[in-house]
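Severity: low
Component: inverse-folding endpoint
Summary: output formatting inconsistent between runs
Steps to reproduce: submit the following structure tokens with default settings.
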């Protein structure tokens, strides 16, 4: 395949190579129409920046570090796809690290990333991370940093997240509108940002419909493979057991589905089940799983864009902020009672 360069784009459009270079970098000095023509031409010629050549021109490594709890988690694999797509188009390599939900490994990952001279870092916190001193120290060294999904209010950094509150509110509201009144919430460690936000959305929906928040219906887990069964047993043996389950992660959703079926509970006749997941097989489960879908790829793309803008210190780089990206509620069989006229639907939150 023929490799095209900036010179080819300049020749095609009859403009200077410096104008092409600045347009590809998104420089504010280049007018929008010229940028559009350059980007269209680059796409047509399948132009791709050469990260090695770019790094030789200056001290930058043209590499960004990405630290995630687990690549095997479908949400994070999708987010990485989004990150890599943006990084590739803007001439950056991506170096991926896994914390494996360990605070110590996360700290080690940060040091490894620095030793590899990355230009900036994207990170989603491990489930053990409640102390973010290691990231504050990173900022003290002026290393560009953007957090995504699992974030911390203690850091003055741009943070890209799903609308966890809105998604949890919609899931809980849907269960209530389906006639459920005792809704259990299975979630993860209480100090994580996603846990707090989803719990808040769950509570707000209960309050809206005049249902009392009952702490005995909330269970906090880790990421162990066999913990969901005992949670279900405890809840179903309450004097007033739940008639629905709202889970806050992929693993909990699948574990809860399996545990309910093993205990001969019919879904949704005995209990309804809805997840907050990114499962690509939710519609293939039996019954198909109602779920709040997180925009993982878009979160990765926005996080990468914001980090690279920060690295390149653009004149009009956006200020530090928390960017919330909408979720979607998809209703399937696991919350649809027989006789209900409720077709498969998608609602934006």
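Observed output (run 2 of 3):
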């Amino acid at each position: 395949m023929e490799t095209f360069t900036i010179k080819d784009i300049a020749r095609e459009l009859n403009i200077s190579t410096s104008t092409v270079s600045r347009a590809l970098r998104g420089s504010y000095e280049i007018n929008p129409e010229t940028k559009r023509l350059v980007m269209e031409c680059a796409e047509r010629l399948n132009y791709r920046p050469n990260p090695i050549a770019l790094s030789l021109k200056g001290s930058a490594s043209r590499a960004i570090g990405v630290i995630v709890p687990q690549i095997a988690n479908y949400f994070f694999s999708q987010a990485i796809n989004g990150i890599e797509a943006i990084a590739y188009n803007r001439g950056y390599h991506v170096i991926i690290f896994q914390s494996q939900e360990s605070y110590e490994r996360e700290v080690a990952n940060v040091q490894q990333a620095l030793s590899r001279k990355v230009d900036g870092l994207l990170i989603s916190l491990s489930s053990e991370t409640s102390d973010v001193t290691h990231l504050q120290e990173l900022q003290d060294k002026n290393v560009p940093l953007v957090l995504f999904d699992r974030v911390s209010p203690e850091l003055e950094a741009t943070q890209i997240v799903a609308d966890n509150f809105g998604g949890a509110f919609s899931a809980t509201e849907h269960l209530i509108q389906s006639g459920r009144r005792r809704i259990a919430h299975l979630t993860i460690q209480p100090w994580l940002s996603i846990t707090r936000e989803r719990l808040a959305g769950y509570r707000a929906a209960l309050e809206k419909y005049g249902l009392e928040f009952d702490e005995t219906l909330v269970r906090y887990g880790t990421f162990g493979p066999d913990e969901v069964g005992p949670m279900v047993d405890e809840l179903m043996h309450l004097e007033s057991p739940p008639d629905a389950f709202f889970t806050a992660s992929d693993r909990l959703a699948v574990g809860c589905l399996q545990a309910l079926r093993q205990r001969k509970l019919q879904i949704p006749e005995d209990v309804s089940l809805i997840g907050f997941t990114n499962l690509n097989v939710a519609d293939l489960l039996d019954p198909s799983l109602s779920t709040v879908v997180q925009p993982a790829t878009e979160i990765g793309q926005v996080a990468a864009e914001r980090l690279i803008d920060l690295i390149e210190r653009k004149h009009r780089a956006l200020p530090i902020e928390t960017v919330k990206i909408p979720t979607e509620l998809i209703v399937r069989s696991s919350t649809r009672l027989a006789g209900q006229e409720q077709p498969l639907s998608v609602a934006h939150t």
